[in-house]
Design goal:
Rossmann fold; membrane; mainly alpha; Uronyl 2-sulfotransferase; golgi apparatus; binds 2-acetamido-2-deoxy-beta-D-glucopyranose; 19 helices; 401 residues
């Protein structure tokens, strides 16, 4: 008793509260607890505020979206060296804004079809733009589009053929990006013949699609196009995949190191996953794992016969493989495209490894020696309906440099 009474804490207490011993003890402890918790609470809030403020500033300055960082941590970025970092989140973070800025002729028709089914099943908003021929925008159009995208009720997945949009630059929250690319020469060939001869929808289809195309363009031998430097088979037209990842900056469309490096950086910072079409089933599997709220069951749907019937996904385009000489020339012209493709493929394989999937094939050799097998290596994917930018200026195609 004496001890308690002599403590300074007790002196301030009202007689009511110090009447009996049990009460006193309880009160004493709760006072301490209150003091500590208030202080801790303040400290926590201050820390939290600083953290949030800091991450906001970081984000607005062009850092990766927070949810992306969390997913990376969840996956375990750690090697043995940085194993002592903050504990990984136990629950996979759920991005509620996803953009798929689909690249032309890289299987996106298939993926969009899958998304239609998934959107219904998992109740997210799928907005698939029907603008197929405008990948670069003025500043004003960019802001307009980004505002539109941001106003879609979440969770949403927005998809369009459009070069990367930098939301952060305009102080809008950056969504998470996903994409799929494919071997650059195969993509080019697929587009070349698609423009001329259409797809599974039959012989007449190409005539409806490109009615203004003259016969000497339509039946132009691809070897002539390449070896005689027609614009369609030369740069900058061959610089096609990189700008989707580089962005809207004019320099993003100039074949070169600047655009390449920026595109790579962007893949690391803003893309949750960039898959490669050659391993489409693994891409779908990873999407299922990384974005379950959008992609659960996608592989089951993809493998079901009903899906293939529904999508009429059986046809192929007429395709001739260029001569080895022409392929070699093409390969050298697409140097940056290949550097980018190889980078993406390595990243993709790394992600597969983290998830515990084995790579389906050995990394392809990086020299033109692989060109001979090129056409055989890639299964022809399901052709898309989309047209590409530049279709309408096809009238200038005969102009040679
Ligand atoms: C895109 O296609 C639409 C019609 O499909 C056409 O009106 C428009 O001019 C095209 N835009 C470009 C930039 O080619
Ligand atoms: C944005 O949405 C408005 C209204 O829905 C539409 O008129 C406009 O064309 C859209 N802009 C873009 C860039 O999609
Ligand atoms: C996006 O904009 C921010 C802010 O202007 C900039 O720091 C960042 O480098 C840009 N990122 C890309 C990929 O253009
Ligand atoms: C598939 O083809 C059939 C007949 O050829 C057609 O009626 C149907 O609309 C096509 N489906 C799609 C998704 O285009």
């Amino acid at each position: 008793m004496k001890n308690y009474n002599s403590s300074p804490r007790q002196n301030n207490q009202t007689p009511n509260h110090s009447r009996d011993r049990n009460n006193k003890t309880v009160h004493w402890f709760s006072a301490i607890w209150l003091r500590f918790s208030l202080r801790d609470y303040g400290f926590c809030m201050a820390t939290l505020f600083l953290f949030c403020f800091g991450s906001l500033v970081y984000q607005l300055n062009g850092g990766p979206p927070k949810v992306l960082l969390e997913i990376r941590r969840y996956l375990g970025e750690s090697t043995f060296v940085d194993d002592h970092g903050p504990p990984a989140p136990r629950v996979l973070p759920f991005p509620s804004q996803v953009i798929y800025n689909r690249v032309g002729k890289c299987g996106s028709r298939t993926v969009v079809l899958l998304l239609r089914i998934l959107a219904e099943r998992h109740q997210f908003n799928l907005v698939s733009s029907d603008i197929h021929n405008k990948t670069r925008l003025t500043k004003h159009e960019q802001v307009d589009l980004m505002r539109n995208i941001s106003s879609i009720p979440q969770p949403f997945l927005y998809t369009r053929h459009v070069h990367f949009l930098n939301f952060t630059r305009f102080r809008i929250e950056q969504p998470v990006y996903i994409n799929i690319i494919r071997d650059p020469i195969n993509r080019f060939l697929s587009n070349y013949f698609f423009r001329r001869f259409g797809d599974w929808r039959g012989e007449q289809n190409h005539l409806i699609r490109t009615p203004r195309m003259k016969d000497d363009e339509r039946y132009l031998d691809i070897n002539v196009c390449i070896l005689e430097n027609y614009p369609e088979c030369s740069n900058p037209r061959l610089f096609y995949i990189v700008p989707y990842f580089c962005g809207q900056h004019p320099q993003c469309r100039e074949p070169g190191v600047w655009a390449l490096e920026r595109a790579k950086q962007n893949v690391l910072e803003n893309f949750l996953l960039v898959g490669i079409l050659e391993e489409l089933e693994d891409v779908l599997l990873l999407l299922e794992r990384l974005l379950p709220h959008y992609f659960s069951d996608v592989l089951t749907i993809y493998r079901s016969p009903e899906f293939w019937k529904m999508g009429n996904l059986t046809g192929t385009v007429k395709k001739h493989t260029p001569t080895l000489e022409a392929l070699r020339v093409l390969y050298h012209r697409m140097k940056y495209e290949y550097e980018f493709y190889n980078f993406v493929r390595d990243q993709f394989h790394l992600t597969k490894k983290k998830i515990g999937l084995k790579s389906a094939r050995q990394p392809a050799p990086r020299e033109p020696s692989f060109l001979r097998e090129l056409a055989l290596r890639t299964p022809e994917p399901l052709e898309e309906e989309e047209e590409e930018e530049g279709l309408d200026d096809a009238n200038n195609w005969l102009v040679q440099p």
